[in-house]
Amino acid sequence: MNHFKDFTPIRGCKQYIANNSELCVGNSSFWREVFGDIDIYNNRMHCPDQCDGGVVNETYLDSTAACEMRIGDVVIADLTELPSNIDVLYNTRSIEGRLIIANNTGLGNFDYFKNVEVIGSPLLEGDMAPLYVEGNNDLQSLELSKLKKVLLHENGLLIVLRENDLLDMSESEMDSLIAIAGGSDFVDIHCQEALLRNVRAAVLLLPLILMILMMLYSAMKLRGYQFSRALSVKSRKILADMSKEILAKNPLVWMIQDRPLIWRYGENDPERNTIKQLKTQHENYLKEYAIEVLPNARIPTTSDRCIADRLFQIIKHEEILAIATEDDISLVIPALPSDVGKGETYNGSRVNGSSITLKLVDVKSTNDQTQQYTYNVTIVQNAKTIVKRLKIYLYVWDSLRLPISFDELLEAITLSTKWRMTCVSDRRKEIFFLLHMIFTYVTVLEQSISVVKAFQFHTDHFNGAPMDRCEMLCVMAFILEWANQTNSIPIEIAEVC
Question: Which domains does the chain have, with CATH numbers?
Answer without folding.
Answer: 1-47 (no CATH), 52-190 (3.80.20.20), 233-496 (3.90.190.10)
